[in-house]
Amino acid sequence: VQLQASGGGLVQPGASLRLSCVYSEISMDYNAIGWFRQAPGLEREFVAGISWRGGSTLYADSLKGRFTISRDNAKNTVYLQMTSLKLEDTAVYYCAAALSAYAGTTRDRYRYWGQGTLVTVSS
């Protein structure tokens, strides 16, 4: 069971960035995937989640309209498109897999976690 997040980097405010999460086959069940982030000194927080088929998505209220989650099951990949990045978006971004087909907003819903990718927004 592995999830590999990538795509982080250093960008200026207002820029866009797309993160990718490649996952191995986790179980015979269909798995929702979520993105979380953790800024220095803060708790890990929910960013977005997507159901197994991609038909249902969830977003943190503060990020709606700027972030978009999508998935390509043929490539075992979930994406997080981030636009109009702000200084406060700086964090390590993690992807995680749930043991259910539908995403949730709490950490305890997710069983498997990737190693994280660092996004730094700085001028």
The helix-and-strand class reads: mainly beta
One letter per element, helices H and strands E, the order comes to EEEEEEEEEEE
What is the total tally of β strands?
11
- Strand residue content: over 45%
Shape descriptor: globular
> What's the main sheet like?
7 strands, mixed
User: Which radius of gyration do the C-alpha atoms yield?
Assistant: 13 Å
Question: Which blocks of ≥5 consecutive residues have pLDDT under 50?
Answer: none
Average pLDDT, to the nearest integer? 93
Q: Count of helices?
A: 0
In helices, the fraction of residues equals under 10%
End-to-end gap: 37 Å
Account of the protein in words:
- The chain contains no helices and eleven strands.
- By secondary structure, it is mostly beta strands.
- The strands form two sheets. Strands 2, 4, 5, 6, 9, 10 and 11 form a seven-stranded mixed sheet that branches. A four-stranded antiparallel sheet has the order 1-3-8-7, with no helix packed on it.
What is the compact description of this entry?
The protein is an all-beta fold and about 120 residues long. It has no helices and eleven strands.
List keywords for this structure.
single chain, 123 residues, mainly beta, seven-stranded mixed β-sheet, four-stranded antiparallel β-sheet, 11 strands, globular
Which helices and strands occur, and which strands form pairs?
Layout: E1 3-6, E2 9-11, E3 17-23, E4 33-38, E5 45-50, E6 57-59, E7 67-72, E8 77-82, E9 91-98, E10 110-113, E11 117-121
Parallel strand pairs: 2-11
Antiparallel strand pairs: 1-3, 3-8, 4-5, 4-9, 5-6, 7-8, 9-10, 9-11
